[in-house]
Amino acid sequence: MAEPQGYEVQNLTPEEVARGVSEGRMLLVDVREPSETSVEAYPDAVIVPISVFDPADIPDPKDRLVVFACRTGKRSMTASFLAQEQGYPYRSHLAGGIVAWKAAGLPTRTGG
Q1: Where are the domains positioned within the chain?
Q2: What is the pTM of this model?
Q3: Helix (H, G, I), strand (E, B) or coil at 20
Q4: Cβ of 7: how many Cβ atoms within 10 Å?
Q5: Does residue 24 contact residue 92 with C-beta atoms inside 8 Å?
Q6: In this structure, what DSSP letter does residue 43 have?
Q7: Backbone angles phi and psi of 91, in degrees to 5
Q8: Domain 10-110 classified CATH 3.30.479.10?
């Protein structure tokens, strides 16, 4: 998907996101579907599936940076564009998704 005119997405690495979440600077929002997150999930992520995505469903991030994540990075970019269309300043996503997260040796929560 090409970036819509006027919107931008900031690519963050798995290491940057893991550090930001653990330090309380980032709120990780997983936009994958429940069928995916029940098998394997990011630790400490809020789940807001892209199929029913509404940025108003994201808990108040307070002073944290909202970072979208999915499996490979495509749906997280879409979520960022959708949020920006509705006036939210959510521009960050986990580049490469959970695939890159695991490749970086970061933990996931498995089983439901």
Answers
A1: 10-110
A2: 0.93
A3: helix
A4: 14
A5: no
A6: T
A7: -115, 0
A8: no
**Residue at 32: amino acid letter:** R
SS3 state of residue 67: strand
Active-site pick, 29, 48, 65, 70: 70
The pair of structure tokens assigned to 17 is 């996101």
Would you say 27 and 64 are in contact if contact means Cβ atoms under 8 Å apart?
yes
- For 83-107, how does the pLDDT look when each residue is reduced to its tens digit (9 = 90+)? 999 999 999 999 999 999 999 999 9
Is the CB of residue 92 less than 8 Å from the CB of residue 65?
yes
> How far is residue 15's CA from residue 20's CA, in Å, rounded to a whole number?
8
17 in Cβ contact with 67 (< 8 Å)? yes
**Is residue 77 flagged as an active site residue?**
no
